[in-house]
Design goal:
Blueprint lengths: L10 E2 L2 E6 L2 E3 L2 E3 L1 E6 L4 E5 H6 L7 H20 L2 H14 L18 H4 L2 H8 L7 E4 L11 E4 L1 H10 L2 E4 L2 E4 H8 L3 H9 L4 H6 L9
This protein binds zinc ion (ZN).
């Protein structure tokens, strides 16, 4: 029979032993102790769990560790989301002259609006979650990255957008295809179709359409 060791007043982690109070566990009476936890709870702990270091609190320590781990994971997870990747890429295009696409963005004056600049959660609140296979697109290619001008676009929308924003020169003026369409009152799809079938830019823009502006 092992020599009895009085643990009264000893401290194990957050626990201070108050008094012996054996407990029925695993089919037999075993040596155990009522302990006071730093958090104010009392708890009964088997001698072997105190001495082995397995139990160091009433349970509050493990809860706190789990909570801390979950918080860390949540934070870490946020940084790895597709939305964060989009936000980060947007900032790089507009703010980092070393970015290979900078000349098409920051280099020609495209800005990230103030609320989104250093606040990813604000960006996420405004844009919402990114659907799979979508990308961050600006509706107006000369416009800034801001709530009214940004959407999560499908590859098709993206292609349409690129098309609408394609530069067309007529005479001595160059503007987006969508701006020409607006100006002359022809559907942008008609202008696109004409250009893609070999019409000159002048004819594509200046020839009236047979049926004007399909709704
Ligand atoms: Zn506790």
């Amino acid at each position: 029979m092992p020599k009895f060791i009085d643990l009264t007043d000893e401290v194990f982690g957050r626990l201070t032993v108050l008094n012996r109070k054996d407990t029925f566990s695993g089919g037999k009476m075993r040596t155990a102790w009522d302990c006071l936890c730093d958090c104010g709870e009392t708890t009964n702990v088997l001698s072997e769990n105190l001495k082995s270091g397995r139990t160091k609190s009433c349970g509050c320590l493990a809860s706190e560790e789990t909570a801390a781990r979950n918080t860390a994971n949540a934070k870490h997870g946020l940084w790895r989301t597709p939305e964060h990747q989009s936000w980060s890429n947007m900032r790089n295009r507009c703010l980092s002259p070393s970015n290979p696409d900078y000349h098409n963005y920051g280099g020609r004056g495209i800005k990230v609006c103030d609320p989104w600049l250093n606040d990813f959660p604000a960006f996420l609140r405004d844009m919402g979650p990114k659907p799979p296979m979508h990308t961050l697109e600006r509706k107006e290619s000369n416009g800034n990255y801001e709530p009214g001008n940004c959407i999560w676009a499908t590859p098709k929308q993206q292609a349409n957008n690129t098309r609408r924003n394609r530069k067309v020169t007529v005479g001595n003026r160059t503007q987006n295809m969508s701006q020409w369409a607006e100006e002359v009152g022809i559907d942008v799809g008609v202008i696109w179709h004409r250009l893609s079938t070999g019409w000159s830019a002048y004819d594509a823009v200046m020839t009236p359409a047979k049926s004007q502006r399909t709704a």
